[in-house]
């Protein structure tokens, strides 16, 4: 088992990011799509921490805190919108959201 | 190690930060209002318009001051204090003032019969507080000189806009717009952030000035160069979503269509100003040494956006969707300016920077005015489930017969969007195309002119429908009596006046355009 290097962390982060991206594009449930976006943000956090360690620079780790706060704010707004929609309908998939098109 | 003694607090220039403080103060006053009994109608709008007005005046004072002082950075290099950002900041404040006024109008134009209250949801204080926080986010975006600060600005703007788009709770279309905007906006933010991470990993910097210095000193090794380019590409994708460039534009028509009309105007102007200005600043300040790498990508995006935006615009039958596609095609024009700015060696590269800024500032006035006019015709755009039919092109039939002055004003705004001479739209289009020609991007210049002609057909369709068609007979046509309150009249009159004044006498704009390109670094 080789020692993990910065590159291995970056590769894991890139994989997580791709999983999140694919998830947003193929899943139809807004909640799951939203979770995939969170996964993407956390993948970026992992890269920030790995890069900060590689550069021996504290900035990258500080940025992670900012990103966490932004993600939390997104949860509040996103879940608020989803709950508002669920009040009017019984089920919710992205395919139901097809009133606007053209 | 004694950390406390090492800490040097940044020097804060409070006067230079006053425009932001005015916006925050307004939002806080409004939020405190939730502890008091409901204020009389229109007061919330007055507070938000006042605080945005104060902010705009403060920004204008500093804009004047900067004719003698050199541009500089604030708060340890995180915010830029230059005319480029301040002009955009003034446009943002103007957009908030106009939107506050039209929101009061849209809110009073349609009283809520369903639950017996006399006020609709959009005349609530949250609505105006969100206008101010969105403006704050946009203000931070246009002046941010640091990628992380820029990201925080984008999120402040976007989170406010998601809620505003979904703010009409009685209308399914509005909620759908909010959800679509939220999912795709969050998706775009993730790309943007990954781009920031990769650029940080290569350069060890998040400050745009710092990145530029590192890249200019040629210390990067080949492996890092691939990572840097990937980062720049991801940044471009993220901004592409925010600016709504083709192929990242798919959310724009749906969100513009579904959101309440006065919010759509706000979104179109604020979102565009903030995203375009910070995109230009990012690429011109941080990556001038990599211009040969990003310019082809910008070229391709600009060409695609111009072509697809204008062609798809003319096949729409709903005015809000038409204006949404037209905003996409306008974004293409702004990118033509950025492409010209990418010819770093050329003496005309600065023309590209100033023309893109002037274009987006003039467009923001046009967008607010046009959507305010649509809002008047459709009665605020919210009438329960049938909200979408009222913004169809048919609703505009014969508007000129019932209200010729209003129709004339809207026509001026549409002509300006089409780029007819003697309007601000012509000055804007002429600027970017001249910049493209003088940097020898002939292909883009020709494409821009062709797409302007195609898009002109779209504006002509709305005008024909207003001036030449008979009003819809039978049934109550909402256009038969456009509700024009005082605040709507003032907004439309101001938008038309700005459009004509800068169109007939563009000298002021041309005089300052040179000073716009000196960035704070």
3D structure, described in words:
The complex is a heterodimer of chains A (102) and B (521). Chain A has helices spanning 6-26, 30-55, 59-88. With 102 residues, chain A is an all-alpha fold. Chain A has a single domain (6-93), classed as Helix Hairpins, CATH 1.10.287.3510. In chain A, helix 1 runs antiparallel to helix 2 (30-55) and helix 2 runs antiparallel to helix 3. Chain B is mainly α and 521 residues long. Chain B has one domain (18-110, 120-517). Chain B contains 20 helices and two strands. Chain B is globular, with a radius of gyration of 22 Å. The two termini of chain B are 33 Å apart. Classes of the chains: A mainly alpha (102), B mainly alpha (521). The interface between A and B is large, with 40 and 41 residues.
Key terms:
heterodimer; A: 102 residues; mainly alpha; 3 helices; B: mainly alpha; 20 helices; 1% strand; globular
Q: Could you tell me the mean pLDDT of chain B?
A: 87
Greatest chain-chain contact? A-B, 40 and 41 residues
> What shape does the CA trace of chain A take?
elongated
Structural class of chain B: mainly alpha
The total beta strand count of chain B reads 2
How far is the N terminus from the C terminus of chain B?
Answer: 33 Å
The CATH architecture of chain A would be Orthogonal Bundle
Binned, the helix content of chain A reads over 70%
What percent strand of chain B? under 5%
Report a brief summary of the structure.
Chain A is mainly alpha-helical.
Question: How is the topology of this model organized?
Answer:
The complex is a heterodimer of chains A (102) and B (521).
Chain A: H1 6-26, H2 30-55, H3 59-88
Helix pairs in contact in A: 1-2, 2-3
Chain B: H1 3-6, H2 14-32, H3 43-65, E1 72-74, E2 79-81, H4 83-109, H5 125-143, H6 147-165, H7 172-203, H8 208-216, H9 222-243, H10 251-258, H11 261-286, H12 291-314, H13 319-341, H14 349-377, H15 399-402, H16 404-418, H17 424-438, H18 442-467, H19 486-504, H20 507-513
Antiparallel strand pairs in B: 1-2
């Amino acid at each position: 088992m080789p020692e993990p290097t910065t590159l291995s962390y970056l590769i894991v982060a890139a994989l997580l990011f791709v999983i999140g991206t694919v998830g947003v594009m193929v899943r139809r449930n807004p909640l799951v799509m939203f979770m995939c976006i969170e996964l993407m943000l956390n993948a970026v956090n992992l890269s920030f921490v790995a890069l900060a360690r590689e550069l021996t620079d504290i900035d990258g780790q500080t940025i992670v805190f900012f990103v966490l706060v932004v993600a939390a704010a997104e949860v509040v707004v996103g879940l608020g919108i989803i709950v508002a929609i669920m009040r009017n309908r019984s089920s919710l998939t992205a395919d139901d959201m097809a009133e606007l098109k053209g | 190690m004694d950390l406390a003694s090492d800490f040097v607090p940044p020097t804060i220039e409070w006067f230079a930060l006053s425009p932001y403080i005015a916006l925050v103060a307004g939002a806080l006053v409004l939020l405190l209002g939730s502890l008091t009994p409901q204020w009389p109608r229109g007061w919330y709008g007055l507070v938000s318009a006042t605080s945005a007005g104060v902010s705009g005046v403060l920004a204008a004072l500093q804009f004047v001051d900067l004719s003698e002082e050199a541009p500089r950075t604030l708060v340890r290099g995180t915010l830029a204090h230059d005319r480029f950002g301040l002009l955009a900041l003034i446009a943002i404040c103007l957009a908030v003032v106009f939107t506050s006024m039209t929101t009061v109008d849209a809110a009073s134009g349609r009283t809520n019969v369903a639950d017996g209250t006399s006020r609709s949801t959009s005349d609530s204080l949250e609505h105006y507080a969100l206008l101010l926080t969105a403006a704050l986010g946009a203000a931070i975006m246009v002046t941010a000189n640091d990628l992380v600060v820029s990201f925080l600005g984008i999120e402040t703007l976007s989170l406010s806009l998601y809620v505003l788009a979904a703010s009409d709770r009685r209308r399914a279309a509005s909620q759908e717009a909010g959800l679509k905007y939220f999912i795709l906006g969050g998706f775009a933010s993730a790309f943007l952030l990954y781009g920031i991470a990769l650029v940080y990993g290569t350069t060890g910097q998040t400050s745009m000035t710092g990145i530029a210095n590192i890249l200019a000193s040629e210390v990067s090794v080949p492996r890092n160069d691939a990572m840097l380019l990937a980062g720049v590409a991801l940044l471009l994708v993220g901004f592409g979503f925010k600016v709504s460039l083709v192929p990242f534009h798919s959310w724009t028509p749906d969100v513009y269509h579904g959101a309440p009309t006065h919010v759509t105007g706000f979104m179109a102007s604020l979102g565009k100003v903030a995203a375009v200005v910070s995109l230009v600043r990012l690429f011109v300040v941080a990556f001038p040494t990599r211009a040969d790498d990003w310019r082809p990508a910008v070229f391709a995006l600009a060409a695609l956006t111009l072509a697809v935006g204008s062609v798809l615009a003319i096949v729409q039958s709903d005015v809000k969707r038409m204006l949404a596609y037209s905003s996409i095609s306008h974004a293409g024009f702004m990118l033509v300016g950025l492409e010209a700015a990418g010819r770093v060696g050329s003496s005309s590269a600065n023309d590209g920077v100033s023309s893109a800024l002037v274009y987006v500032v003039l467009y923001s006035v046009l967008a607010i005015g046009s959507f305010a006019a649509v809002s008047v015709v459709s009665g605020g755009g919210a009438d329960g489930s049938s909200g979408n039919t009222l913004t169809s092109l048919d609703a505009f039939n014969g508007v000129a017969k019932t209200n010729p002055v209003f129709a004339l004003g809207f026509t001026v705004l549409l002509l300006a969007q089409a780029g007819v001479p003697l309007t601000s739209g012509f000055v804007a289009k002429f600027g970017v195309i001249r910049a493209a020609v003088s940097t020898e991007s002939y292909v883009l210049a020709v494409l821009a002119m062709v797409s302007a002609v195609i898009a002109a057909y779209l504006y002509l369709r709305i005008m024909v429908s207003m001036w030449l068609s008979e009003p819809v007979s039978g049934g109550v046509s909402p256009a038969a009596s456009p509700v024009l309150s005082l605040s709507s009249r003032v907004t439309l009159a101001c938008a038309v006046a700005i459009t004509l004044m800068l169109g007939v006498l563009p000298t002021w704009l041309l005089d300052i355009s040179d000073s716009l390109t000196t960035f704070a670094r």
